[in-house]
Structures are given as C-alpha cells and as structure tokens.
Amino acid sequence: MSEPIYRADVLVCAGTSCESSGARSVLAALTEELAKTGLDQEVRIIETGCRGFCSMGPVMIIYPEGVFYCQVKADDVPEIVEETLLKGRIVQRLVFTETESQMTVPYYEDIPFYQKQQRVTLHNCGVIDPTNIDEYIARGGYEALGKALGEMSPQQVIDEVKTSGLRGRGGAGFLTGLKWEFTAKAAGNPKYVVCNADEGDPGAFMDRSLIEGDPHTLLEGMAICGYAVGASDGYVYCRAEYPLAIKHLKIAIEQAEAYGLLGDNVFGTDFSFHVHIKEGAGAFVCGEETALLASIEGRRGEPRPRPPFPAVSGLWAKPTNLNNVKSYANVPQIILRGAEWFSKIGAERSPGTAIFALTGKVLHTGLIEVPMGITLREIIYDIGGGVEGGKKFKAVQTGGPLGGCLPEEQLDLKVDFDSLRQAGAVMGSGGMIVVDEDTCMVEFSKYFLTFATAESCGKCVPCRMGGRRMLELLTKITEGKGTLEDIDEIESIAAGMAAGSLCSLGQLTPGPILSTLRYFRDEFVAHVTEGRCPAKQCTALVQYYVNPETCKGCGICARNCPVNVIEGGRRQIHIINQDGCIKCGTCLEVCPFDSILKVSGETVEVPTELIPIGTWAK
C-alpha cells in the first residue's frame, strides 16, 4: 500500500523543553482530533526536536503556509483543526505577539526571534523527525560522508576542515582541523573518535537539543572524522540526565547501521566505523577531556597533566580525537558545501555560527544560532526581546560557570572567541545568562563559585583549596563582614588558581569573580565599606520596614509573617520587629499597597510605638 499524499504537515516540538510544557498532551489530542475529523490521511503529524523558542513552548508550525502557534495546549487542538486545517483561518490568540507594538506575527519566517539567526548547525532541528533517518537523508544527510569516502582522501578531508577555519565549539576555540591532523599523524593504533556531550553548565542545553533534534548530524560528523584520522570506533560521552537525547541517539545508530552508513564497510567501502554511547553520571569535571576519557575507561573522572595530549595518548593510551557535539555537527556541511562557504560566515578569525542557550532575565529565552561577530546587543534585544518586566539591563554572563560577566558598556561587543576573551569573558560551550538591575553582582559571582567549588574533583591543591577559600571570602563580603584586604586576597588566589590548577576547571573558576571585579568593583566596595548591597539582595545587608506614610493598617503583612514579628492592630501603623525579622520578604510580596520598604545601608525613620493611621509626622 502506497504512502498517503498529505496536503499539510503539522510540526510539533517534542524536545525536552516543550515536552515539559505539555507537548505530549498536545500530540495526543492532535492525533485524536485528526482521526475524529477524518483528516488523519490528509494531515501528517511530525514530532520534531527543539525549534529554539523555548519560552513560547509548546510550539506548533503548520505547513505549507508556515503558521506558527505558541504555548499550545491540548484544549486548543480542536480549534486549530477546525479553523486552520479545515477552514484555512488563523487562530489569532495562539500566534506570537510582538511585545512593544502588540502586533501579531502569524508566520514563522516573520517572527523577530528568528530574524537575525542563521541556522547552520541547527538547520534540521525543529524541521525533521529525529527518529526517522529517511527525513535526514531527504535533506542531504550522509551525502557529505559519501563524498568524503568516494571523492576525498583522509588528508583532503583534514585540509578542508582546516581551511574552513572551524574552531572547537566546546569552548577552547582550538582549530578543529589541526586537532584532527595531530591525531591522524600520531603513532599507534587503534585510534578513537570521542564526542564530549557532557554539557554540565547551569542553564545550558545546546548539545542536548542538537542530539534530540538531529542525532544523525553528529553521527555523520564523527564518521567523517573517523575516516580522516584513521579510527574505526567512536564514543559519545553523554550525561545520563539526557534520556531523550540518548534515546534518539540509540535509534539513529541502529538506523544508520541498518542502512550501511555506520558499522562495517560503510557505503560498501573498506572503511568501518562503530559508535558507542557512554552515559556519564553528571560530574562537571568530566567535561575536561582527560577526565572524560578516564570516565569512559571506567576510572574516576579526574584530569591528568598534559602533555601528552589525547591526540597522542588518549583513550586507553591510544591516539584520540575529542571534540564537542557542535564541532562534529558542523563538519558534514563543511564537506558538502566547501570550506570557502563556511569561512565566509561570521567573523574572519571565528568563522561560522555560534549556538547559545539564552536564559535569565531576558524576555524570550531559548536556543539560538547566530553568525559569529554579531553583537551582544543584537542577541539580547533584537532576538531576546530585551530585559523582561521593563527592568534595566545590568550584565550578561557568557561561557557558563567558568565564563565572565560583561556590563552595559560592552553591549556592542562582537561575539567571537577573541573579542570575548579580550573583554574578560569566554565563548565557552554556549551559555548566555542575562541579569537585570535587581541582581547583586557579588552574589551572582558567588553563585557560580559555589557551583565550581562543589564540582571540583579535588585532585589538585590550587583548585581544591583556592576555590573554597575564595568562597569563604565572598560569603564574608555578602554578609557585611568583609574587608578591602579580602578583595585583594581573592585576586591573589585567583591568579594562583589560573597559574597552578591542573585543568581548565580550576584555571577558569575565578573568571566570573575577576570579570565582576573588573566591571562592578564598586559593588564589592559598597558591601565592605558601607555595609550596603546596592541591589538589595544580600539578606544580611537588607532590612524591611513598614512605610508609615502609606500603611493602611489592613494587617495582611502581619497575618502572613512566618515568624510573627509584625505588630499593629486594625487602623494602626504596623511595625516590624527588626530583632526577630528573618528577612524572608513575605511582607513585601503580600502588601497590596506597596507599603513595605526594602532598604540596605539606609536609615529609615519609622514609629517606635503603635499609633493610628494618619497620625504619623516626621
């Protein structure tokens, strides 16, 4: 029986983000409604990977028109089927609405979030069913591998990757083709190809989304690398917390082997390449290449001194090429379209695109892919829609927990490896966190230091002790007990960690603190010399008072206070007992008259005894 010819395709994002927002119930309702209306032979449902617009999920796109629906619920499905699929009308309440103009944008191609993106690595994500190899092949999948095996020598493949200028997308930015060449020329066999899909950065989901939405791109890139360096086995090291990514990867491996695109005698040639999956336990340090290799071997995930580098002595002491998911995923298109095509995208010294997980206090969070050289302002405001809630932008942290924080005056900085490094930040693997005026930069840097210290494997003294000592000093400062000498000591320890730590975890742990000191030193000084948190976030340095000029004596704050330290009867100005206040902020949240003052380092004049409403006078 031949396949039905569909008049419409309904693409529903079933990536982890949309799935957590209810995509499964939407898919179930859509399947049921199409069957009920007899459209199941006319309309095809495609479960895709991440489309990127995570804050608007679950998302649905209906082709051929390209109608884009946001935050779709199962209850919306009957109306979508009736109006759009039967009558050809758009359900206006489900389309994207531009925040400032309040204009509705019904079509995918017109949505501002996507306008400045350039989807190269993610070109299949959100477009194809990641569990169907035929859809990948229909979009040119495995053509690059066939071209490499049939038309190019291993050295020609390496030269093409080198000429493209592709730099490692794991964060270090080392030339990918040069790394491949080192492995190819290293003495010893067998050789291995390893993919780092550990992705331990808080708020990062780039690699996960890519594997969930387009696993064959990764496999094809690894196979091309295997041919180029002379390896017949590849390992994908993926954290076990990514069950959907692992599931799709396993399906993709089975399908590719069944088609003769992986396994023995790929494309009927003498080249064989087998891919294995190693599930990690979620240790951040296993993102470091030597720790990752140790974990694959079944040993404790700890880094070792280098040299020798993995290209010479890696997995089981054999030559090993190790790249990030995004690095391998770029390779098929470089081989297929040519190095010159790739090198013309982005910046001169950082060609291609960059993928970021845009999160934090930005209006539109999600997964974005932009050409290298785009500015931070364009990413945050043109793509992300600006800071949410009308708040003022304060800083953006790039590069994950080992990256750096950049202030407003750096918004026009171009995003590429070299520009970010010069500004005191790093590209990293692709995390980008935006914070607003209500963020305390001392507390913010303490958050990342707390994470990095907890994730230290403890093998080397600079990282083990240095991180802990810096955390102690930062804690003192946030509690109002710090000194100017503590700031000097933090900088001294940071220099020692950068110079003496065994791996990049310890070397880069001070990054967020040093960049914050560079651009927001006045906040550190205010904490120390004035006992004041400018952002009013450090609990030890804030106080809550009832504003006697606006208090209505309603008693709502007193009734909700968890420690019962607010005094005052009906029609009396309430008073907060400062000795017993735990500074939880509940009173501020529940007061309907905005009569709670949150202050830091300020003197507030309030009544010392209960008086009636309207009788307060300074």
Topology:
Blueprint: E1 8-13, H1 16-20, H2 23-37, E2 43-48, E3 60-63, E4 67-69, H3 77-86, E5 96-97, E6 104-105, H4 112-115, H5 133-138, H6 143-151, H7 154-164, H8 176-185, E7 192-197, H9 206-213, H10 215-229, E8 233-239, H11 243-258, E9 274-280, H12 289-296, E10 320-324, H13 325-337, H14 339-343, E11 353-360, E12 366-371, H15 376-383, E13 393-398, E14 404-407, H16 417-422, E15 431-436, H17 441-455, H18 461-478, H19 484-500, H20 504-508, H21 511-530, E16 543-546, H22 556-560, E17 566-567, E18 575-576, H23 586-590, E19 596-599
Parallel strand pairs: 1-2, 7-8, 7-10, 8-9, 11-15
Antiparallel strand pairs: 1-3, 3-4, 5-6, 11-12, 13-14, 13-15, 16-19, 17-18
Helix pairs in contact: 6-10, 6-13, 7-8, 7-10, 9-10, 9-11, 10-13, 17-18, 17-21, 18-19, 19-21
Could you explain the architecture of this structure?
This protein is an alpha/beta fold and 618 residues long. It has 5 domains: 8-109, 3-Layer(aba) Sandwich (Glutaredoxin), CATH 3.40.30; 133-343, NADH-ubiquinone oxidoreductase 51kDa subunit (Rossmann fold, 3-Layer(aba) Sandwich), CATH 3.40.50; 353-436, Ubiquitin-like (UB roll), CATH 3.10.20.600; 441-530, Up-down Bundle (de novo design (two linked rop proteins)), CATH 1.20.1440.230; 541-600, Alpha-Beta Plaits. Helices cover 38% and strands 15% of the residues. A hairpin with a 5-residue loop joins strand 13 and strand 14. Helix 10 (215-229) packs across helix 13. The mean pLDDT is 95.
